[in-house]
UniProtKB/TrEMBL annotation:
It comes from the Bacteria. This is Uncharacterized damage-inducible protein DinB (Forms a four-helix bundle). It holds the Pfam family MST. The lineage of its organism: Bacteria, Bacillati, Actinomycetota, Actinomycetes, Streptosporangiales. InterPro entries: DinB/YfiT-like, MST-like.
Length: 166
């Protein structure tokens, strides 16, 4: 695996630190998926779990879209992967999912998120379930979301080919 991640700075203003940690975790998921075949990316963890690396990529594309475009930016756009029919479709539908499409959509949603985030102050608020949600909270939540799922990704990758790491 080629690891080109840049470690987050140990000092800096709040926005710089938050953005760098989010970028670190986005890149970590990419590293965990690097060099695997489509079949390996589809490999599920252990029953009854439906989790796979491809499912995680699809899930994080949805999460990026939901928090930045829908909540923070107020866009009225459809959910990805048929999640309006079944909230777990990002994980359930990996056997027939197009791998490159999933990675492309994930990267597109990250680009949308970066653009939206860079245009908003940390105190900007969006709406979620009728309440306010700050940009700051969204960034912290995204770091937490990636960190949790990167732990899953590490276990999945170790199961696939024995590779482990931060």
């Amino acid at each position: 695996m080629t690891d080109t991640r840049v470690p987050p700075p140990l000092t800096g203003d709040e926005l710089t630190v938050l953005n760098n940690w989010l970028e670190w975790h986005r890149a970590t998921l990419a590293v965990k998926c690097e060099g695997l075949s489509d079949d390996q990316l589809r490999l599920r963890s252990a029953e009854p779990s439906i989790m796979s690396l491809l499912g995680l990529v699809r899930h994080m594309a949805h999460v990026e879209r939901s928090w930045f475009r829908v909540v923070l930016n107020g866009e009225d756009i459809p959910k990805l992967w048929g999640k309006e029919l079944d909230n777990d479709n990002d994980f359930k539908q990996v056997d027939s999912a197009k791998v490159q499409e999933a990675f492309d959509v994930w990267q597109e949603e990250i680009e949308h998120a970066r653009r939206i985030s860079s245009a908003k102050p940390l105190d900007a608020v969006g709406e979620r379930h009728g309440g306010e949600c700050s940009h700051r909270w969204i960034l912290v939540h995204m770091i937490e979301e990636y960190a949790r799922h990167n732990g899953h990704a590490d276990l999945l990758r170790e199961r696939i080919d024995g590779v482990t790491g931060e």
